[in-house]
Amino acid sequence: MTDAAFMAHALSLGRRGLGQAWPNPAVGCVVVKDGRVVGRGWTQPGGRPHAETMALEQAGDAARGADVFVTLEPCAHHGRTPPCADALIRSGVARVITTMQDPDPRVAGRGHARLREAGIEVEIGVGEAAARADQAGYLTRIGQGRPRLTLKLATSFDGRIATASGESRWITGPGARRAVHAQRMIHDAVLVGGGTARADDPMLTVRDLGVARQPVRIVAARRLDLPLGGRLEGSANDGLWLCHGPDAPQDRRDHWAGLGARLIELPLDRGRVDPAALLNAMGNAGLTRVFCEGGGSFGAALLQAGLVDRLVGFTAGVALGAEGQPSLGALGLSALADAPRFALEDARPVGGDVMATWTRA
């Protein structure tokens, strides 16, 4: 196998940590001796053990003189665990191949430098394009201070999310709904606005896919006017974050905090929780990938603020007409040139529906 093939294997392992490894990046590692894989690992739920630690432990003495393929520069700083660069040096590996330098200021080339100082050959750049795609959330948090945001829409052929009476279950079929759960699984958090929470009282969890760690569930509701006696309230102590404005009544704050929800107060913008402050708060909390499932006015506010990096759309072969409820609220556009633009990344059938993925142009 070539270096590119071994790195592709390491990248596939790293993807197992997407949605599970935050606040750390989801990294994969393969240890190769005499053309044979002798150890492999990926970042575990919660961010540790790191991929290199797992792979080296599996390789044991076979790591001495081996090549190591790792999908991000090994860390060089002391956190809750010792630096992975030091572990590689102690193991006596001969060569370390990485995709790119870690932009985290605590690393930023220091891991590569430490390896070279120890006499280990270092090669950088193998599989970099694929690694940057996989690490887009981590890179966004390090570079912009916020997670990468995906906005999901499930609509009729004519872009409606419900009939005029509000009936919406189910516009798309079971295949699309399962695909939504698969998307939740590879994100650190699932986000909705207060309108969606009041209308649907959603659980926002991953179901039937055997996940080790559920995504954080986040609701942005200015005044914490959320449904009582339902699913959200009953599971408030299980990873529920409520982002609210400074004018949220104290009795509601006390109620939800008493149930175990994490409350985050944010400033307002145009009468709603400030979208930019919301995303920055998520980044400060360590989130790297957030999956937003509406509603329409909340999604429009995120688009207006230029915070949506990726669109995932599920389109059903049904038409609801102009009287149906639109998938997005008003964007205040007067010129087509001002509309947010996204480039098509992928389109494929899912059951009887179509799933399309778009990235910000």
TrEMBL record:
Binding-site residues for substrate, renumbered to this chain: 168, 184, 204, 207, 293
* List of catalytic residues: 52 (proton donor)
Catalytic activity reported: 5-amino-6-(5-phospho-D-ribitylamino)uracil + NADP(+) = 5-amino-6-(5-phospho-D-ribosylamino)uracil + NADPH + H(+); 2,5-diamino-6-hydroxy-4-(5-phosphoribosylamino)-pyrimidine + H2O + H(+) = 5-amino-6-(5-phospho-D-ribosylamino)uracil + NH4(+)
List the InterPro entries hit by this protein, alphabetically: APOBEC/CMP_deaminase_Zn-bd (IPR016192), CMP_dCMP_dom (IPR002125), Cytidine_deaminase-like (IPR016193), DHFR-like_dom_sf (IPR024072), Eubact_RibD (IPR004794), RibDG_C (IPR002734), Riboflavin_Biosynth_HTPR (IPR050765)
An example GO BP is: riboflavin biosynthetic process
Top-level taxon in the UniProt lineage = Bacteria
The protein's UniProt keywords, in alphabetical order, are: Hydrolase, Metal-binding, Multifunctional enzyme, NADP, Oxidoreductase, Riboflavin biosynthesis, Zinc
**Pathway it works in:** Cofactor biosynthesis; riboflavin biosynthesis; 5-amino-6-(D-ribitylamino)uracil from GTP: step 3/4; Cofactor biosynthesis; riboflavin biosynthesis; 5-amino-6-(D-ribitylamino)uracil from GTP: step 2/4
Q: Where does the chain bind NADP(+)?
A: 154, 170, 196, 200, 295-301
Task: Give the EC number(s) under which this enzyme is classified.
Answer: 3.5.4.26, 1.1.1.193
**One matching Pfam family:** dCMP_cyt_deam_1
Cofactor names from the entry are: Zn(2+)
Query: Which residues are listed for Zn(2+) binding in this entry?
Result: 50, 75, 84
Q: Where is the CMP/dCMP-type deaminase domain?
A: 1-123
Tell me which Gene3D superfamilies the record gives.
Answer: Cytidine Deaminase, domain 2 (3.40.140.10), Dihydrofolate Reductase, subunit A (3.40.430.10)
Molecular function (GO) terms listed?
5-amino-6-(5-phosphoribosylamino)uracil reductase activity; diaminohydroxyphosphoribosylaminopyrimidine deaminase activity; zinc ion binding
| Free-text cofactor note | Binds 1 zinc ion.
Question: Which CDD domains does this entry report, sorted A to Z?
Answer: Riboflavin_deaminase-reductase (cd01284)
Q: NCBIfam families from the xrefs?
A: eubact_ribD
Q: What does this protein do?
A: Converts 2,5-diamino-6-(ribosylamino)-4(3h)-pyrimidinone 5'-phosphate into 5-amino-6-(ribosylamino)-2,4(1h,3h)-pyrimidinedione 5'-phosphate.
Q: Into which family does the record put it?
A: In the C-terminal section; belongs to the HTP reductase family.
Q: Spell out the protein name for this chain.
A: Riboflavin biosynthesis protein RibD
Which source organism does the UniProt entry give?
A: Palleronia salina
- State the taxonomy lineage: Bacteria, Pseudomonadati, Pseudomonadota, Alphaproteobacteria, Rhodobacterales
